[in-house]
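Can't paste images in this forum, so I'm doing it all in text. The chain is below; anyone willing to post the predicted structure tokens underneath?
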Amino acid sequence: MDWTPDILAELRALLGDDGVLDSGAARFAYEADALTLERGLPDVVVLPRSTDEVAALVRWAHASGVPVTPRGAGTGLAGGATPHRGGMLLVTSRMDQVLALDPERMFAWVQPGLVNARLSELAAPHGLHFAPDPSSQPVSTIGGNVAANAGGPHCLKHGVTANHVLGLVVVLHDGSVVTLGGEAPDAPDAELASVLAGSEGTLGILCEICVRLVPRPEAVHTMSVDFARIEDACRAVSAVIAAGIVPAAMELMDRRTMELVEAWLHLGLPLDAAAALIVEVDGPAVSLPAQVERITAITREHGARSVRVASDAAERAALWRGRKSSFGAYGRTGLAFTQMDGTVPRSRLAEVVSAVYALAEARGLAAGTLMHAGDGNLHPHILFDPDDEEQHRAALEVSQEILRVCIRLGGTISGEHGIGLEKIPMMGEIYAPADLETMSRLRRAFDPGGLLNPGKILPGGPPPTHARAAAQPGNTDARNDPEGPWK
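Text version of the structure:
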């Protein structure tokens, strides 16, 4: 499409001058989400403030045949918000209001650009909070959390984002507005709302979200447990769950991760340990000491060197600061890295962790691991020199091999980051052609023209850039592209 001044004037008539960005510098700022291995320049960036404005934009795009890529805060790690086919990038960051908060019925209606942590701050005076807590919660937004069905440290006990979504107001492919689910438990079309959660903007654009709020726990105890062997830490996680204890969170950091965090924040992490667990229990105060005692005994039986219980809120906050700063700590290395979110049964964590280090070492690469260990969701980081093309290729190959190990061990390729662009080449390895066709039919039912976040999640068309980089010359393995050889 030729983006003439007249065309841009039509969009500015809808949003005002400050709601439409078309300069090269402005568009460059939006060319990637947090998966910077994938980049695509939008033709125009639009920043609506209301459902009505989103609907008007989508009607215009539908009539003009322009692709629309929704974006929240851009914290996604799978390329889901990368406009790799140009078109319109629809950014919801200005849609950041709480539309209603009902403390008695324990729900809130929010716009998609509301920052995750902000919702809990606003609910706190009522003794409530929003339970999903991705590590990016100080900056990530509710709309993006729903679109990717984000997890987080506390999803072990409290569930992923989709478990806390009651209803949605959605703009469909033609600009029509529908309400799915709602405040009542038996609200109409609640099942369709669950379909939208995790669809990464490919079925509709989330404009208003009704979320469940839950009471803040009466008490919280947070423990730090360190191990001489990371495999022992993994086995301790399985043993705690097998004993019938479900902590609020069980997080693991390996030595490399702790070294990077400690060099930055100086928190006193145990750098002589191979791994450390953060284990948190919450609930009625009277029930927690016995849980802490039992967890201490189980972890010691599995090789724990020391167990420390945070003595106050400040110490607890420091433990969580270390864990939630891990991604930034890797970013400070000056190296590039790939990060996966494969998931395996808890009982196979020790095997997959060993495979991560072996695969990286075989290619001469450094690796570090952190994970939501309680639900088997691991985040290996494979580091490489961004100026070394061979290292780049090797890191991508190792990343795909790690996901293949997850599949072989009975797991899956994404626990919370979504598929986006990053994992499209892996979809044919975990789903049969008939499964992929069923997904495609569902997508076509919502978006017959394929203009909503095109080229994401499902195979078909050219592979993403990082997949081409990882492919061996002449590789036409159907597992990597169910549609046939890459052209």
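Confidence is low (pLDDT under 50) at residues 472-487. The chain has four domains: 5-91, 98-215, 217-313, 334-487.
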